[in-house]
Write a sequence for this structure.
């Protein structure tokens, strides 16, 4: 199967997944407690005014009519209007999405940069202190809740040592790009340094579990590959040990690692809610929490749909990267 046919097939499958998510998210509104009209109106409002507001919001329409009106606008980017602010949901979600993507990508970079070398070191020095240290690090990283870790990092590194800020996102990558376009590299470098300074603690908090997971997966894969026949044959031919480890064994190990990285990147996009709340990071997680508290269902639905679309796209990209890492993997 060619790459184009594979992408078409996976895209069609992804559309069905997204449609399922849209349907489930739409149905959750009707089984969840709370009435959106109660958020907009005081308890002692006149019943006629209440009925008029419900009619204006379309909440009195049959379920199938509401579902069709909701679904039909999604392909055109119309996610409805916020019940609280009466502004387009798509605009609010798009405004918050870059911050979440920055945090997810930064956490992934932290995890990959630390985990893969640590996993290789642990596998090549099995039953040595380096291996035991990597194993302990993995167990601690997987066992540590990210909300507790975030609070501890703030207390120690931000409050006690004053090395990092406690919260906020002063400038995003989009702002740095504007500085570069404006022709002021010095300001762009300072802006990037400020952004890096603020994102370090949230990225470490969000990426710690991911780092531990990739470390254990890399170690397991490397141990399996180092025991294969082709590795012994490569050594028998006199190839340098570094070449055997990193070009041959590590490359084959990266296939499951790429899978987990792709899946976890999609998970990080939607799972950064607690981390964003701890560090007041203005992303989709903060928007989801605020919309839940305000019973703003259109904003919540739009945010979850965008997360689902991002998860599907990341999975398709990961599958397409298989053949690049290992040409023996076919697109079927």
């Amino acid at each position: 199967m060619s790459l184009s046919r594979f992408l078409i097939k996976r895209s069609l499958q992804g559309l069905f997944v997204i449609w399922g998510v849209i349907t489930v998210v739409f149905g959750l509104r009707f089984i969840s407690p709370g009435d959106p009209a109660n958020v907009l109106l005081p308890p002692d409002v006149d019943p006629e005014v209440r009925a008029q507001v419900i009619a204006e919001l379309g909440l009195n329409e049959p379920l199938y009519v509401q579902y069709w009106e909701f679904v039909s606008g999604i392909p055109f980017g119309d996610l409805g209007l916020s019940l609280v602010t009466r502004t387009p949901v798509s605009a609010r979600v798009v405004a918050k999405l870059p911050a979440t993507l920055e945090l997810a990508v930064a956490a992934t970079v932290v995890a990959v940069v630390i985990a893969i070398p640590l996993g290789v070191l642990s596998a090549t020095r099995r039953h040595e202190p380096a291996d035991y240290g990597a194993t302990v690090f993995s167990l601690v990283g997987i066992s540590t809740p990210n909300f507790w870790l975030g609070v501890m990092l703030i207390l120690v590194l931000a409050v006690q040592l004053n090395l990092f800020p406690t919260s906020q996102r002063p400038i995003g990558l989009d702002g740095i790009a504007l500085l570069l376009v404006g022709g002021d590299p010095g300001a762009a470098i300072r802006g990037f340094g400020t952004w890096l300074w603020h994102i370090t603690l949230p990225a470490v908090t969000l990426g710690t579990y991911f780092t531990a997971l990739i470390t254990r997966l890399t170690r397991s894969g490397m141990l399996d590959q180092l025991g294969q026949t082709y590795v012994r044959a490569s050594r028998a031919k006199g190839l340098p040990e570094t070449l055997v480890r990193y070009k041959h064994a590590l490359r084959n190990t990266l296939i499951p690692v790429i899978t987990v990285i792709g899946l976890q990147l999609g998970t990080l996009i939607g799972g950064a809610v607690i981390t964003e709340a701890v560090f007041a990071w203005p992303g989709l997680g903060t928007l989801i929490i605020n919309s839940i508290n305000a019973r703003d269902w259109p904003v919540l639905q739009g945010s979850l749909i965008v997360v689902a679309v991002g998860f599907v796209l990341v999975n398709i990209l990961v599958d397409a990267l298989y053949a690049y890492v290992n040409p023996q993997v076919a697109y079927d």
Summary: The chain is about 80% helix and 0% strand. The chain has one domain: 89-325. The domain at 89-325 is CATH 1.10.3720.10 (MetI-like fold).
